[in-house]
Specification:
heterodimer, A: mainly beta, Protocatechuate 3,4-Dioxygenase, subunit A, 9-stranded mixed sheet, two-stranded antiparallel sheet, 3 helices, disordered C terminus, B: mainly beta, 4-stranded antiparallel sheet
Chain lengths: 246, 204
């Protein structure tokens, strides 16, 4: 890491028309879980500007390799081998170094390893479905996994989730905290999914769709998908620091 | 024509879904052997300074039913009012206090619990002081974008009355939705997603 004083400015306001609204009745569960009163706004205070950071000592050797991190010795998860890579950026386009990225997903058959999961597709004894990594100096991250399968879910009579990987991303301030999902280029289920369609803006959905990257595909091994994640930007700190007396 | 600001858009949020435990609390779920322990389950150790407290509660939907598949994170100052973060510029926080906790709600009862310390007061941007509070971030199936709220302390009446965030709330009759109930060292904070007692949520 460079010995640069961390940025401590307030964050750009969240564009709540770009994000999905709380009340999205076609995604039925949102109906009784969506606050109905207006959110109360206030300027970022120190509790929003700061956030937890995690060191590399947190990470195990296989945390970024879902093909092997739950597999018995000598075995590996079943499915299409893929590498997901990209950068954690802020809205100014700058890479955010040193932030924790967590991911979880269904197995290649579309089955989650979870006590509340009821889909009849089989579990893979060698696939747990979770991983994590910390972004590098330029915000870059990568992990290896199998491509998750699509699966049916109880919402409408015949709703199917497109293949997707869940992401949890920490920024450098708690107001950047974000959970989202990555979709795969070319999946016809994307545009039919009630959860995807909680987002009103087509461009925002495309931003969540990873591109197949044949240039970075490893021949005879694993296809690559590129997925950049953008967190809220910080305002320039020059004057704000002076205000705070720093 | 003018210059392009060159800004990107924040990635749109999507629900954490019903299986958020797989990625964030696998040991709680019973998926062992990947991570030694779930991140955020412990905020304090034997050397942590300050008054030990327990924060517990439930998240209740519009039908009165507790959520049993939600995940909660809290973020708070240490007992001296400092955050354990590289972006804290006012001083060094207690190294034996993480300030950050994470737990799923119980699969049967929906109850969540954090063992922590009571935070100190922190400044508002204009240097007035904010009453001690704990920031909550809630994600779950059916929640499209994580919900932010704050828990305040019932034994801080004077500080609460002067808190710049609480004071800017137009409908002061809603302020009690942000104040926990105290029983000994345990503070109970039930979060109502809808209804007459809908908790105040913030756009931060």
């Amino acid at each position: 890491m460079h010995n640069i004083k961390p940025e401590t400015g307030g964050f750009f306001p969240r564009d709540r028309n770009w994000h999905p609204k709380a009340y999205t009745p076609d995604y039925k569960t949102s109906v009784v879980r969506s606050p109905q009163k207006a959110l109360i706004s206030f300027p970022n205070t120190v509790g929003e500007i700061t956030g937890p950071m995690f060191g590399h000592d947190l990470l195990g050797e296989l945390d970024d390799d879902l093909i092997y991190n739950y597999a018995k010795p000598g075995e590996s998860a079943i499915g299409e081998r893929i590498i997901v890579y990209g950068k954690v950026l802020d809205e100014r386009g700058r890479g955010i170094p040193g932030v924790l990225v967590e991911f979880w997903q269904a197995n290649a058959a579309g089955r989650y390893r979870h006590r509340n999961e009821g889909y009849l597709a089989p579990l893979d004894p060698n696939f747990g479905g979770c991983g994590r990594t910390i972004s590098g100096e330029d915000g870059s991250y990568r992990f290896r996994t199998v491509k998750p399968g699509p699966y049916p879910w109880p919402n409408g009579v015949n709703d199917w989730r497109p293949s997707h990987i869940h992401f949890s991303i920490f920024g450098t301030g708690f107001a950047q905290r974000l959970i989202t999902q990555m979709y795969f280029e070319g999946d016809p289920l994307i545009w039919q999914c009630p959860i995807v369609r909680t987002i009103n803006d087509e461009a925002a959905i495309k931003q969540l769709t990873a591109a197949l990257d044949m240039a970075n595909t490893i021949p005879m091994d694993a296809r690559a998908y590129k997925f950049d994640i953008v967190l809220r930007g910080r305002r320039s700190t020059l004057f704000e620091n002076r205000m705070e007396g720093n | 024509m003018v210059q392009d600001l060159g800004l990107l858009k924040e990635s749109a949020s999507q629900t954490a879904g019903p299986y958020v435990h797989i990625g964030t609390a696998p040991n709680f779920l019973g998926t062992t052997g990947v991570y030694p322990e779930d991140l955020g389950i412990s905020m304090v150790n034997d050397k942590t300074r300050g008054e030990r407290i327990t924060i517990t509660g439930r998240i209740i939907d519009g039908t009165g039913t507790p959520l049993r598949d939600a995940l909660i994170e809290i973020w708070q100052a240490d007992s001296g009012g400092l955050y354990n973060s590289p972006t804290e510029t006012r001083g060094a926080a207690d190294p034996n206090f993480t300030g950050w906790g994470r737990t799923p709600c119980d699969f049967t009862t929906g109850v969540f619990t954090f063992e922590t310390v009571k935070p100190g007061a922190t400044p508002y941007p204009d240097r007035r002081m904010q009453a001690p509070h704990v920031t909550f971030w809630i994600v779950a199936r059916g929640i499209n974008l994580g919900l932010n709220t704050r828990m305040y302390f019932p034994d801080e009446e004077k500080a609460n009355a002067e808190d710049p965030v609480l004071k800017r709330i137009e409908h002061q009759n809603r302020v009690p939705t942000l104040i926990a109930k105290k029983d000994g060292s345990t503070y109970t904070f039930d979060i109502h997603l809808q209804g007459d007692n809908e908790t105040i949520f913030f756009d931060i």
